[in-house]
Amino acid sequence: MASCLVASKRPLLALPFFLSSPCESVVLDLRRNQSSYRRTTQRLRVKPDASFGSSLIHTQEDHIIHNPPSSAPSVYLTPSKFLPSNDVRKNLRTAPANSNNSEELPPVVRAPSEKKYHLTPSDIREIRRLRATDPMTWSRLKLAKRFECSPMFISLVCETSPQKKEIQKRVLEAVQSRWGSKRRMAREDRQLRREAWGRDQ
Amino acid sequence: MKRLQLQRWSGSVLSAQARTGGRLQQRLYYAIRHQSTASPAAPAGNDQLVKKQPQAPSISSPHSQKSRYRLPSPPVEAARESAKLAALHARLYLPSRLPLETLARSLVHPSADPNPNFNNESLATLGHDLLTYYASEHLICSYPRLPLTVIFAAMYAYVGPKTLAAMAREWGVESVAAPGGEVDPGYLQFQRLAPGTDVNPETITGTERPHDDEPTWRKSVTSRVVYDNEYGDPVKGPVDPSELAERDAQTSQGVTVEEANASFVSAVMGSIYLHAGRPAAKRFFEQHFLSRHLNISDLFNFSQPARDLARLCARENFEAPVARIVSETGRKSRSPVFVVGIYSGQDKLGEGAGASLLEAHFRAAVAALKGWYLYNPLDVRVPSSMEEEGAAPWKPVHVDLGEVIV
After folding, report:
1. Is A84 on the interface with B (CB under 8 A)?
2. If you average pLDDT over residues B314-318, what whole number do you get?
3. What whole-number distance in Å separates Cα of residue B191 and Cα of residue B255?
4. What percentage of chain B carries pLDDT values higher than 70?
5. Cα(A100)–Cα(A97) distance, rounded to whole angstroms?
6. Is the pLDDT of residue B246 over 90?
7. Does B350 contact A80 at a Cβ distance shorter than 8 Å?
8. Does residue A121 sit in the same domain as residue A155?
9. In this model, does residue B88 exceed pLDDT 90?
């Protein structure tokens, strides 16, 4: 109800703004803030949540108000998909879910990539040969681009030479040696925060 | 199942002084332990719980008080005089069939009194076995899918030495500065460690595990069930009788307060089992141990939850998990919040919130995995519930593949 009132008032308030747009000083004078007691209380008059119930209906009988704050679901509530087939709760929960099956699912974070399985044993031999002959040129990313697979697959197929690993380690050390205390601490904090994800903290 | 006549057996755990006319009296070593100059009563009624000794007049005499200084731990007769002991008995609401003498004996650690007839070693061993049995059956039946490492951690949290020591502190058990026969038997008697002693040796050698001396070899989690203790920690193997004296020499150097307190709580459990029977022991366990709140979902630590979840869904023939943005706010601000849900087909498996899409995805996968692991069947019954009279026929507990192995 309150939102309807506000919506109907807006064109009236904006009317002088459109009419006197060339003159800025008039606009500033005409724009009104909400620093009146009546307007403030009117906007703060929020309709109570439905779970609080109408006091007119339940004047006689006692009732429980359950209006929890929005929070993450408890991990102790097993999703119905994970319930074994002989559990009673599985049938209880899936019954209403089937009725509104057509509901839209939220958008995906990243579209799942289709696995192609297009590489042949000769391709894999080629990957290994390239990685062994020139490990500096043929990095994981370059090999993945050339053979149209993921860098993860390249690391499954072959391993780089120990010399390359040593060089990479030295490069990393050289970069890290130029970090100041602030950056180093920030990186360490980031690492610690990341470890806390797994402990759910 | 028929209840066993425990009173018959419990005579063997009572100390030799409570039972008059025992064969131990004939040994010379124990000769010092007899404070009472009165002649022992006739050896009758061995199945009686506590043989009420006639109040020897010498107990209150100054001579007897002096002789108490020669004892390593308080004599059995002193248990009836101790107000502390009676208060502890009443405070714990122990069954009246558990005599004060046994409670006094459970307060004597082997480091204070090496004599196995007067210390709590046997009671603590029995109590420890009962505690770990009840705790493990509760965990495995209530949460049948828990990974083994989490079971180890939960066992340690329920009946580990740190918990037992904390319980003894909550019960108001105080420990002596130095053990002796003259102190009040209501105190916990043990020999303290010398200051500066290293209490945490890095490696435990002499375990039963083959190739124990190879530090770099992988120790699988499953092998910890066989070779290690109930908390998954390495434990020393059985000791030869020839090396027992060496071990006794080590305990005489002293023990930590934690270890002594833990042995007392285990010994109380064992003595309740012996004197009051199995139902009372189980009730004691439920009231004092299971009533302690343990949030098992805090014991998990995942490193690659998304991969584990994908493996789980493939194993259980569910659709592959897909991360979806349920809601988000302030994507281009300094502190955005994303809520990501993990869906398998139409069903939501878990939900997580985070400051980045990566974090929210990670947390959602953790929540989904916890949802799998923390499955709790309805109407859980443990195997020991069959010991109750008139128990319903046993139905097998839920067992499935459980842990995700990648």
Report:
1. yes
2. 95
3. 6
4. 80
5. 6
6. no
7. no
8. yes
9. yes
Chain A closest-CA separation from residue B404 CA (Å) = 13
Per-residue pLDDT averaged across A94-108, rounded?
A: 66
Contact A192/B at CB under 8 A: no
The residue assigned the tokens 């366990």 is B285
Q: Does A106 touch chain B (CB under 8 A)?
A: yes
Task: For residue B321, give Cα distances in angstroms to A108, A109, A123.
Answer: 11, 12, 30
Q: What is residue A37's predicted lDDT score, i.e. its pLDDT?
A: 86
Give the mutation candidate from A98, A105, A197 for the B interface (greatest B CB count, under 10 A). Answer: A197
Residue A195 counted as domain residue: yes
DSSP string, B24-84: GGGSSGGGGG----SPPPP---TTSSS------GGGTSHHHHHHGGGSSS--GGGGGG-HH
- State the virtual CA torsion across B87, B90, B95, B99 in degrees, nearest 10: 20
How close, in Å, is residue B349 to chain A by CA atoms?
Answer: 6
Q: Which two tokens stand for residue B249?
A: 């020499």
Task: Please determine, for the modelled complex, whether the ipTM score is greater than 0.90.
Answer: no
Contact (CB<8Å) B297/A106: no
Alpha helices by DSSP H, chain A: 2-19, 24-30, 37-44, 88-99, 121-133, 140-147, 151-157, 162-177, 181-198
Task: Kindly state which CATH superfamily the domain B67-295 is placed in.
Answer: Ribonuclease III domain (1.10.1520.10)
Residues B262-289 pLDDT 10s:
999 999 999 999 999 999 999 999 999 9
Residue whose entry in the numeric block shows the structure tokens 């009572």:
B14
One of 3.30.160.20, 2.40.180.10, 3.90.1210.10, 3.40.50.150 is the CATH number of B302-384, namely 3.30.160.20
Q: What is the DSSP string of B217-281?
A: S---TTHHHHHS-TTS---B-PPPGGGHHHHHHHHHT-B-HHHHHHHHHHHHHHHHHHHH-HHHH
Here the tokens at position B310 are 């994908």
Chain B environment of A86 (Cβ under 8 Å): 398
Residue pLDDT, tens place only, A29-44: 566 666 788 888 888 8
**pLDDT 10s digits, B55-85:** 444 444 444 667 888 888 899 999 999 999 9
Contacts of A70 in chain B (CB under 8 A): none
Q: What average pLDDT does chain B have?
A: 84
Side-chain-facing half-sphere of B207: CA atoms under 13 Å: 21
What is the reported pLDDT for B38? 39
Pull the structure tokens for residue A66. Answer: 């359950």
- B202 CA to chain A: closest CA distance, Å? 25
**pLDDT at A46 > cutoff 70:** yes
